[in-house]
Design brief:
With 569 residues, the chain is an alpha+beta fold. 67% of the residues lie in helices and 8% in strands. Among the domains are: 224-313, no CATH class; 320-412; 420-563, Heat Shock Protein 90 (2-Layer Sandwich), CATH 3.30.565. Strands 2-4-5-7-6 form a 5-stranded mixed sheet. A two-stranded antiparallel ribbon has the order 1-3.
Length: 569
């Protein structure tokens, strides 16, 4: 009877690949390459599976390209579950790239739909990210969430992984009793559901927890179980952990010969990827040798140095590093293109802003002039409301003209090429004369230094700064105090007032730094002008708070001429 071939559907092929992509990736890629379909769901799954295979083979850039194709199809056709899977995969990939900010974005994006199994994977990703960022509290929070979802969806094997991660977090925080309790909880799940291949690893974790609690007898008992079950169920990784735990327990029980013997089993079972355990084992060996055979300690150190210099101790293998470097290069290239586009847009906006600031002054002046003429003609009017309206128009036009004038000056402002040593004491004395001495007071503690700068620009800076502070100071007598500090590189000027102007500026500071052309009407262009002059001199400005709670304005100017930016870019 002739043999018959059963034709698999594309769905069957995708499912077969999903089950076998880690054990037979080459065959899976061949199958996927032959899949042709007009069904966007099939094609999106195809791209996703190719991405997964490339990811596990450390071909990260190719994987990212496939994932992006898959996510585009999934979003456009509303494949919610598949979209969530791909977002989880992309988050994992960016974790591998150590780009945790981008990984966070994709992780949180994947939580918009409720799929317990996939959401638990996201929570594990978030735990990894926050671990890398050093936020143990957030790490633990998301590990707990992952465990809860895996319990809810019946993923008992994943619950074991979650419990191990939680216990490791406790260990990092030196909460050893809680770590032990969590490992024992994971052992209950392993034994209940006959996850026999996990027994050796679980026993070794419990042994290390007992070592942290200095209960070396229990550590020895559990590490011995770990070795036995690792051999029985052919689990080489857990055999390494179990042997190292056993050697460590023997060492603390002062049984050095058995400790060294157990350690040799550790070395014989270690593979190239187990760098951290290799290092821990060598350090333990040096401790044992120093007690057991001190004359061999130099030899052990030499072995250790060879290990530290070996390929085993590289942070990433060469393929990983090359791929990450390529990714960085692509990322930099992308940023350069974006920056070039932004720079072009900024130049266009600057030209438009200059034209507007200049051209709007004329109609504004016209409104002000003709409202003034109307006001004169209606001086004899018996209707005070008319005169009041005209006054508002006139004062509004005057204020608008002033703001347009300073905006135009701001946009066109550049430093003079003729810079010199500027005496700040004389500058302050000159500026003070512009204000009414009966209502304002400017006090300088000690003599101010000379700085290398554009003298007219510095004079303008102080004038604008004082006007801003006095405008928002509601006290009857408005006071400004200037202090000075000096170090090797910079001259620091600390400005305080007796009102709330600098305090108000602090609340606007975030918005202020988002744009030099302040969007809010609360901060006038004068303050932006102050910052621009400081920046062009290579200095910077900060609103800070002193120990007593006083809000201060700090201005730094560089001492050296070569720090000047000169012309505005």
């Amino acid at each position: 009877m002739p043999s018959t071939k059963i034709k698999q559907s594309n769905h069957d092929k995708i499912e077969w690949v999903r089950l076998n992509y880690m054990t037979d990736p080459d065959k899976c890629l061949t199958i996927l390459a032959k899949i042709e379909s007009e069904d966007p769901f099939i094609i999106a799954n195809k791209y996703n599976m190719i991405g997964l295979i490339r990811f596990w083979r450390s071909e990260y850039l190719t994987a990212l390209d496939q994932f992006k194709k898959a996510i585009s199809l999934s979003k456009s056709h509303d494949f919610k579950e598949l979209e969530t899977k791909i977002l989880v995969n992309i988050s994992c990939l960016y974790i591998r790239f150590k780009r945790y900010n981008i990984a966070l974005e994709y992780a949180f994006d994947s939580l918009k739909y409720k799929f317990d199994r996939l959401n638990s994977m996201t929570y594990n990703n978030l735990a990894l990210i926050y671990s890398a960022l050093g936020n143990e509290e957030k790490q633990l929070e998301y590990q707990m969430k992952a465990k809860s979802l895996n319990e809810k969806s019946g993923e008992k094997r994943m619950v074991v992984t979650d419990l191990r991660n939680i216990a490791e977090n406790y260990t990092k925080q030196k909460r050893h009793k809680e770590a032990l309790s969590t490992y024992l909880e994971s052992l209950e799940v392993v034994e209940k559901y006959n996850f026999n291949t996990l027994l050796g690893y679980t026993y070794s974790n419990i042994a290390f927890a007992y070592i942290s609690l200095e209960n070396y007898e229990q550590a020895l008992a559990y590490s011995t179980k770990s070795v036995d079950y690792s051999i029985k169920y052919k689990s080489p990784d857990s055999l390494v952990n179990g042997s190292l735990a056993k050697a460590t327990a023997y060492f603390y029980l002062d049984q050095l010969a058995p400790a060294l013997e157990a350690l040799e089993h550790t070395f014989s079972a270690i593979t190239g990827g187990m760098k951290k355990i290799y290092q821990d084992a060598y350090e333990l060996k040096i401790k044992i040798i120093s007690k057991l055979s001190p004359e061999k300690i130099a030899e052990s150190y030499e072995e250790y140095v060879v290990f530290l210099k070996s390929d085993l101790n590289e942070i990433d293998n060469k393929n990983d590093l090359e791929d990450i470097l390529k990714f960085r290069e692509q990322e930099i290239e992308g940023y350069q293109k974006k920056n070039a586009a932004i720079e072009l847009q900024n130049r266009e906006l600057e030209v438009v802003s200059k034209l507007l600031a200049h051209d709007l002054k004329t109609p504004t002046r016209t409104v002000g002039s003709f409202s003034g003429l109307l006001n004169k003609k209606l001086e004899s009017s018996e209707d005070p409301a008319i005169r009041e309206c005209l006054d508002f128009i006139s004062s509004g036009a005057h204020e608008m003209y002033q703001k347009l004038d300073i905006t135009e000056q701001y946009l066109n402002f550049k430093l003079s090429k003729n810079k010199s040593q500027v005496d700040l004491n004389r500058i302050i004395e000159t500026v003070v004369r512009l204000f009414d001495k009966d209502t304002v007071s400017i006090e300088v503690e000690h003599e101010l230094p000379f700085i290398f700068a554009d003298q007219m620009a510095i004079r303008r800076m102080f004038e604008l700064l004082f006007r801003f502070i006095f405008k928002y100071n509601e006290e009857t007598i408005k006071r400004i105090k200037i202090r000075h500090k000096s170090d090797v590189n910079d001259e620091l000027f600390i400005v305080t007032d007796n009102g709330k102007a600098i305090t108000y500026a602090r609340f606007w500071f975030k918005e202020f730094f988002q744009s030099d052309l302040i969007a809010s009407g609360k901060i006038e262009m004068g303050f932006a002008f102050v910052r621009k002059i400081i920046n062009l001199h290579g200095g910077h400005l900060l609103i800070d708070e002193e120990e007593d709670g006083t809000t201060v304005l700090k201005i730094w100017f560089p001492k050296k001429e070569d720090k000047l930016n000169g012309e505005q870019p």
